[in-house]
Amino acid sequence: MQRKQRNLFILGAISFAVGLFAILGVIQTKAYLKTAAISQDIKGLQTGLPTIGGGFQLVDKDGKVWKDTDFRGKPMLVYFGYSYCPDICPTALSHLTQAVEKLGDGKVQPIFITLDPERDTPENLQNFAQNFHKDFLMLTGSESQVDHVKKGYKIYAAHVSEDKDAEIDHSSLIYLMDKEGNYRAHFNHQTPSEDILKRVKLHIETGE
């Protein structure tokens, strides 16, 4: 009898511990999701921002060399893609074009960085640039230079097959960087241009 009671006590204690851990896990998950939701709110955050960005040296469609430090003093909207992208990249760049047009000239520097430096030569980027805002800076470089920037901006990119002419599966993020080159917020290719515009205006007016 005593052994049976002891076994029941042990089972009860185990059940209690499992239940407690489950409750704590739910609380922790809700807290994380709440933080994640806030971090992408249109108002942005002053603190707790991830480390994204860093130095780079690339060339534009005219062959001019650009460094990250050349953009100090003006916010940047940075997008990674490739000119042969069939849908996602044109969508993101179209939203960016609409936002930059409504914002007005000179308020922000839109930048496109290729994920396909082998095919996206300066000449190809020159043709590609004609489809979007005139202020767009189209940048390319060597494979190692592009890989360096991808790492800094935490961008994933990989050909869907071994064929180098195949499509590229990649992160579709638009980064808002402040005038010192620090990350402030991000969007994706489905973010409406109005939302991008509001967030950029907020940053220009308040620094958030």
Notes on the protein architecture:
The structure is a single chain. This protein is α/β, with parallel strands linked by helices. The chain folds into 2 domains: 1-39; 57-206, Glutaredoxin (3-Layer(aba) Sandwich), CATH 3.40.30.10. It is 41% helix and 18% strand. It has helices at residues 2-39, 88-103, 122-129, 143-152, 193-206, and strands at 57-59, 65-67, 76-81, 109-114, 137-139, 157-159, 168-170, 173-177, 183-188. The chain has a 5-stranded mixed beta sheet. The protein has a two-stranded antiparallel sheet with strand order 1-2. The protein has a two-stranded antiparallel ribbon with strand order 6-7. The longest helix is centred in the first third of the chain and has 38 residues, at 2-39. It is globular, with a radius of gyration of 23 Å. It starts with a helix and ends with a helix.
